[in-house]
Input
Amino acid sequence: GNGLMAGKRGLVLGVANNRSIAWGIAKACSAEGAELAFTYQGDALKKRVEPLAAELGAWVVGHCDVTELQTVDAVFAELEKRWGRLDFVVHAIAFSDKDELTGRYVETTRENFLRTMDISVYSLTAVAKRAEPLMTDGGSILTLTYYGAEKVMPHYNVMGVAKAALEASVRYLAVDLGGKNIRVNAISAGPIKTLAASGIGDFRYILRWNEYNSPLKRVVTIEEVGDTALYLVSHLSRAVTGEVLHVDSGYHVVGMKAVDAPDI
Ligand code: NAD
Output
């Protein structure tokens, strides 16, 4: 890299393993000189996150579960103590009960609806609120969304409703924080086989369908999402906020999808 991110410090939330989108973003930012802080959700993921952090010389701040806001507070207290300020945050967190990522949306339980919204939507606002005072020199907050926010996708169900709320949150946060030169954007990524995606019914079929119907005739990688993320957290996108940028091989622009794609 050429040091596009030299001197920039960023918090990356959502690395679970080396297939995580957050990992693709972390690699891209680190290659351009960013200094990174990671968190992990529970001891099971600690073992996976620590060696990945070491690969990039990143700091592992500690456990962070967004349903326990005191753990979010603890992370930001550590960031303030050690760094004093922050330039960017990558929020790559979502969760829903996988029993409800199949079948009909109408069957969603109230309990899972609230839990999905808490983890996948409210957490961005909770993080933005805590990042704001540390972003003394402006900043960039980036989250991850999916086309299921805009159109009904099979099996995506309550997560589609959550992503719609997440995208609206990006716009409201962009207005709230814009006066401090803090930008808030989302990448709408095409389907990628990650741990979270493995909960979604028929994911292989979704991948093949996207490959067949996207203008670029292929699916996307975490490295490709990482490169677009690099643009959004760097000064290159300094006039861009409240935006949802699709990194999906162009899938979202195609109005008339094939009904008889071969081999799927
Ligand atoms: P992943 O499983 O690698 O990452 C999901 C992360 O969310 C994990 O690190 C997990 O620890 C974290 N998480 C879940 N519940 C949490 C909680 N209560 N507190 C703290 N962290 C919690 O999967 P991914 O696909 O890289 O997901 C990252 C983001 O990208 C998600 O927002 C997802 O919806 C979004 N996204 C994924 C795809 C895809 O096809 N994989 C497409 C578009 C958007």
About this structure: Strands lie at 9-13, 35-40, 59-63, 88-91, 139-145, 182-189, 244-247. Residues 9-249 form a domain with the Rossmann fold fold (CATH 3.40.50.720). The helical segments are 21-31, 43-56, 69-82, 110-131, 157-178, 203-213, 222-233. The chain has one domain: 9-249.
